[in-house]
């Protein structure tokens, strides 16, 4: 099965906590703090690999997590950094942040990589909190929390040459005789959902060809699975437009040709500008002298396209078509591809959280509840068996104006203040 889209959850490693430790040496009964820093959490790194062809692996595994940083240790020893987790994706994969819908990275080159989720920073050990007033700090900094996000992987560079056209015009037959692929070929009036891929071996070289699912009118608006099919086309370099020139389905070949081209143009001008060859298939049913074929050929050539009369099942005209496709592909590869028009994810803004230092107060079930992101980090760093550490937490809340807010809301002595899972009673002289 060809898988071209997957949604996965990624989680970087949490930063290790700083250590609370004191020197314990002979003849030094009251040694100073020597708690080391925690290690950095591992990153989630996405890497493009040209040897991968599908997103099949992500169909079965949906969650990926990097290693947490190790906690700091005594004697000022740093905790070990968490190991990065490398996720390999096929070259041509577009990585999208689900929450914003913005493109995080377009994985065009083999070996291209980026950090999709940064690991948390390690917390500082208690050695950093010693000062002239606080000689023996009994608390340390907690490591920064892991970064979690859901990302969408879309594989769009699926082939060098793509076969496009209405269902049942002979694309599967052309793929079968041109490559080692063995698609199921029947007289279907509907289309398969996934593209079939095959390798064309020609003149001591090769290229990948894809039978892309048939397009219907309105595909650019998402009718049927139109947008899905058009995205397959977007990253092929050369198109072969297969048309049933015999009219065996009772349709007009010129109308079919125009309808497909119209859908490509409405979806994307860059897709419509791709090099295109036209395969006039089923020519054996009418012959190259038939008025209908000559009319079609004249019309298509007047639009600037080259027409190749073929009969896929008996390989009539197929070698000439493949030679022309290879020549167009080599020209396309020699020219840099235009940059796709994406709205990109802003990593700098993502690292800046304007809400980080805000402290919020609410009244819930008879208690005053205080929350905040930086507050959570300080809370996790608090030693609740140490008065100085508790005092530091309280002073932070007071400095942020949370006490004044609660007094405005009616806070009185003896009332309960809850900070995450810790509760205490409020007193003025606290």
UniProtKB/TrEMBL annotation:
Residue segments, region Disordered: 14-42
Localization in the cell: Cytoplasm
Keywords: Cytoplasm, GTP-binding, Hydrolase, Magnesium, Metal-binding, Nucleotide-binding
OBG-type G domain mapped to chain residues: 159-330
GO molecular function list: GTP binding; GTPase activity; magnesium ion binding
Residues the entry annotates as binding GTP: 165-172, 190-194, 281-284, 311-313
Family membership: Belongs to the TRAFAC class OBG-HflX-like GTPase superfamily. OBG GTPase family.
Entry protein name: GTPase Obg
Species whose genome carries this gene: Hornefia butyriciproducens
């Amino acid at each position: 099965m060809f898988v071209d889209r997957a949604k996965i959850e990624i989680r970087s490693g949490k930063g290790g906590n700083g250590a609370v430790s004191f020197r314990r040496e002979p003849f030094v009964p009251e040694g100073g703090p020597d708690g080391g820093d925690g290690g950095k959490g591992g990153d989630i790194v996405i890497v493009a690999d040209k040897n991968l062809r599908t997103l099949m692996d992500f169909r079965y595994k949906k969650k990926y997590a990097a290693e947490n940083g190790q906690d700091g240790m005594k004697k000022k020893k740093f905790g070990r950094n968490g190991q990065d987790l490398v996720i390999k994706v096929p070259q041509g994969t577009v990585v999208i942040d689900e929450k914003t819908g913005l493109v995080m990275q377009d994985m065009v080159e083999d070996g291209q990589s980026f950090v999709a989720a940064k690991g948390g920073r390690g917390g500082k050990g208690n050695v950093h909190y010693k000062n002239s007033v606080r000689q023996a700090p009994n608390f340390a900094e907690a490591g920064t929390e892991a970064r979690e996000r859901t990302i969408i992987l879309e594989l769009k560079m699926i082939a060098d040459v793509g076969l496009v056209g209405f269902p049942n015009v002979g694309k599967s037959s052309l793929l079968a005789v041109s490559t080692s692929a063995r698609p199921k070929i029947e007289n279907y009036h509907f289309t398969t959902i996934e593209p079939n891929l095959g390798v064309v071996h020609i003149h001591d070289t090769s290229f990948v060809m894809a039978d892309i699912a048939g397009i219907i009118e309105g595909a650019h608006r998402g009718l049927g699975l139109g947008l899905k099919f058009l995205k397959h086309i977007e990253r092929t370099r050369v198109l072969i437009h297969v048309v049933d020139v015999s009219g065996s389905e009772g349709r007009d070949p010129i109308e079919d040709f125009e309808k497909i081209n119209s859908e490509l143009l409405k979806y994307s001008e860059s897709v419509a500008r791709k090099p295109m060859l036209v395969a006039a298939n089923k020519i054996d049913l009418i012959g190259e002298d038939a008025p209908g074929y000559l009319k079609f050929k004249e019309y298509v050539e007047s639009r600037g396209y080259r027409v190749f009369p073929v009969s896929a099942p008996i390989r009539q005209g197929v070698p000439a078509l493949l030679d022309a496709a290879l020549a167009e592909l080599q020209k396309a590869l020699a020219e840099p591809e235009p940059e796709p028009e994406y709205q990109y994810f802003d990593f700098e803004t993502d690292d800046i959280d304007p809400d980080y230092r805000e402290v919020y107060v609410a009244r819930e079930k008879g208690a005053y509840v205080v929350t905040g992101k930086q507050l959570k980090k300080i809370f996790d760093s608090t030693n609740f068996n140490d008065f100085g550490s508790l005092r530091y937490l309280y002073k932070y809340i007071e400095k942020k104006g949370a006490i004044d807010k609660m007094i405005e809301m009616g806070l009185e002595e003896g009332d309960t203040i809850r900070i995450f899972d810790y509760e205490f009673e409020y007193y003025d002289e606290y």
